[in-house]
Amino acid sequence: MLALGIEGSANKISVGIVDEKGNILANPRKTYNGPPGSGFLPKETAEHHRANILGLIDEALAEANITMDNIGLICYTKGPGMANPLSVGALVARTLSQMFEIPIIGVNHCVAHIEMGRLVTGAENPTVLYVSGGNSQVIAYNEGKYRIFGETIDIAVGNCLDRFARILKIPNEPAPGYNIEQLAKKGTNFIELPYSVKGMDVSFSGLLSHIEKIADKYPPEDLCFSLQETAFAMLVETAERAMAHCNSNEVLIVGGVGCNLRLQKMVQEMLEERGGMLHAMDERYCIDNGAMIAYTGLIQFLSSGGMKLNDCIFTQRFRTDEVDVTWRNK
Amino acid sequence: MDRHLIAQGAEGKVFLGKLFGEDVVIKERIARKYRHPLLDAKIRQKRILQETRNMGKARKEGVPIPAVLFVDAANCVIFMEKITPGITVKEFLLKAQDVSKEIMIDLAHKIGRNIALLHNIQCIQGDLTTSNMMIKPFVSLGAELNDSNDIIQEILKNKDVGTVYMIDFGLSFISNLPEDMAVDLYVLERAIGSLHPECSSLFEDILEGYKQNCTKANINLTRLSQVRLRGRKRLAFG
Ligand SMILES: Nc1ncnc2c1ncn2[C@@H]1O[C@H](COP(=O)(O)OP(=O)(O)OP(=O)(O)O)[C@@H](O)[C@H]1O
Ligand SMILES: [Mg+2]
C-alpha cells in the first residue's frame, strides 16, 4: 500500500510517497525564507505553500512513477505548527481524499519526526532529542505514549539560533542555523554565557537576551561558537539526565537543528562516556518532509484505522504525548 | 581505594566505598569531554559548592538528607553518608506491586513535607525527580535486607514507608521567588507524569503534604497553575 503525505507546518512544504515498509518513493520539498534580518511570517509562508503544493504533488507522483489511483492513503500534518501554513496542507489533503475517494489521516508532526528517525536509523527504543525551530524536547516512549521528559520552558533552541542570526544579519539562505554553524567553526574564544538547566528542562531566553546585548563587542565567529557550545551543552546535559532517569542507552536526534554536526559530535562524546549509542540523520530526513508524515500516517492507519473527514482539522497546539501510540507493542 | 560504581548520573559517577572503615557513597563529577573545558570547569565547581552548601543547610532544618562527610573540591568529589538500607522512590514505584493507598499517601506526604521545608528556607532543589529521593524503611528486628526486592517487601509489610531522603543537590540554589518554587514543583509533576503515569494521584498527594508544611504554599501553588498554563501554551510550533 502506498501513502501520500503532505507536510507544511512551518516554512517548508513537502510531499512524500512511501510504502508500508518505509521505502521512500519520492520526497520533494520547497523552503520559504524571509528577507535577511527577518523571519518567516505566517501569511507569506502560507502563500508560498499554496503556490507550490500542487506542483510538488505532480513532481512526487512523477518521481514515483505512479498516479493518484495507486495511492491508498492521504496523510497530512494535523499539528503542531503555524495555523496558516498548516491550513494549506489540510485543505489539499481533504480535497484529494474526496476527489479520489481515498482514506485520510491527520498526523502529529513531532511523532512523525520520531517515527521517521526510528525507521531510518533502526533505533529500537531510544531517548529522543527533538530539536527544531519550534521545539526542544527530550522524549522517551513509556506505556503507550511518547512522553516528554524535558523541554524548553521558553523558546526553542532553533528559534534562539535563528533570532541571533537575524541580529548579526547572517543570511537566511540556505538556513540561518546552518550559517551559524559555519561561522562557529572559525570561532576560537569561548565567551561565558548564561547556562540554564532546570532538572530535565532548559531555558534559552536568558541566553539569547544576554548575547544580543554583547553582540557588537565580539567577533561574530566567537559569538556563534560560544552560543552553540553553551546551548548544545544544555541540551546534551538534559538528554543525559533523561537517559539516567529512564535507564536508556541510545539517543536519536531529530528535527532541523539535529543536522548540526557539532551537536551530533557532542551527543556522540557524551554517549561514548556512557557506552551508549547515537542515531543521527542527515538533512534529508532531519528537516521537515512529507515522507515522515506519509510513513507515520500509514503505520497509524494500519494499526488503528483512518479518520472521518469531519475530524480532519488542523491545530496549532498538539502535544507529542496526546497521541496514542497504537503501532508499538511495548 | 576500593570502590565500585553504583550509578552513572548526568554528570557524576556514584561509587560505594569506604572512609575511615565506614561504608560511604562517593559522588564524583568527572570532566565531560563534550563541553568546552572552560564551561565544564565552571559548571562542576559551581555545582559541587551548591550541592554541599545546600545539603548542609537543609539538613540542619530537619530535612532527611545524607550527611556530607568530606569534600575534595579540587577534584569535585563528595563523600557522604550511605542511605542503607535504601531504595530510590523511582525503583520503588516501578517495581513494587500492590502498594496500599496508605503507604502511597504516607510516601507522598513525606515528599511534600520535605519540599516544603526546603522552600521554607528558600532552597530550590532544582532537579526534583523520583530518582533523587530515597526511602529508608523501618527495619524489623532481625530482618535481613539483601537486595531491593527485600527492601520493597519490608516497606510493604509496614504501614509507614519509613524515612524519605532527598539527595542530589547539584542543581539546587537559593531563591525566594514564588516562580522558582513553582518551577521546582512543576519539574517534579512532569517527572512523575512521564515515568509513573499510572500513579495518577501521587502528585496531588505530594501537594497536600506541601500545603501542610510550607509557609507560602498558597502563593507558590497559584504560581504553579500559571507555570502549567504556560507549559501548555508553549507547544505551538512543529
Ligand atoms: N547517599 C546515598 N546513599 C545511597 N545511595 C545513593 C546515595 N546518593 C546517591 N545514591 C544512588 O546514586 C544515584 C545517583 O546519585 P545522584 O542523584 O546524587 O547523582 P546524579 O544523578 O549523577 O547527580 P547529578 O544529577 O547532579 O548529575 C541515586 O539515584 C541513588 O541510587
Ligand atoms: Mg540524580
Tell me about this structure.
The complex is a heterodimer of chains A (330) and B (238). Chain A has 330 residues and is α/β, with parallel strands linked by helices. Chain A has 2 domains: 149 residues, ATPase, nucleotide binding domain (Nucleotidyltransferase, domain 5, 2-Layer Sandwich); 159 residues, ATPase, nucleotide binding domain (Nucleotidyltransferase, domain 5). Chain A is 44% helix and 20% strand. In chain A, strands 1, 2, 3, 4, 5 and 6 form a 6-stranded mixed sheet that branches. In chain A, strand 10 and strand 11 form a beta hairpin. In chain A, helix 3 crosses helix 10, helix 5 packs across helix 7 and helix 7 packs parallel to helix 8. Chain A is globular. Chain B is an alpha+beta fold. Chain B folds into 2 domains: 79 residues, Phosphorylase Kinase, domain 1 (2-Layer Sandwich), CATH 3.30.200; 151 residues, Transferase(Phosphotransferase) domain 1 (Transferase(Phosphotransferase), domain 1, Orthogonal Bundle), CATH 1.10.510.10. Chain B has a 5-stranded antiparallel sheet with strand order 1-2-3-5-4, covered by helices on one side. A 3-stranded antiparallel sheet of chain B has the order 6-8-9. The radius of gyration of chain B is 18 Å and the shape is globular. The model of chain B has no long low-confidence stretch (mean pLDDT 93). Bound molecules: adenosine-5'-triphosphate and magnesium ion (MG). Magnesium ion binds next to loops of chain B.
Question: How many domains comprise the coordinates of chain B?
Answer: 2
Q: What is the CATH topology of the largest domain in chain B? A: Transferase(Phosphotransferase), domain 1
Q: Share of helix among residues of chain A?
A: 40-55%
Largest binding interface between chains = A-B, 58 and 40 residues
What CATH architecture label of the largest domain in chain B applies? Answer: Orthogonal Bundle
Q: What is the first-to-last residue Cα distance of chain A? A: 25 Å
- The shape of chain B, in one word, is globular
Q: What is the β-strand count of chain A?
A: 13
Helix run count of chain A: 10
Summed up, the helix count of chain B is: 7
Structural class of chain A: alpha/beta
Question: How large a portion of the residues of chain B is in β-strands, by DSSP E?
Answer: 15-25%
Label the CATH architecture of the largest domain in chain A: 2-Layer Sandwich
**Structurally, how many domains make up the residues of chain A?**
2
Domain Gcp-like (chain A): 29-295
Protein name (chain A): N(6)-L-threonylcarbamoyladenine synthase
Subcellular location (chain A): Cytoplasm; Nucleus
Main location (chain A): cytoplasm
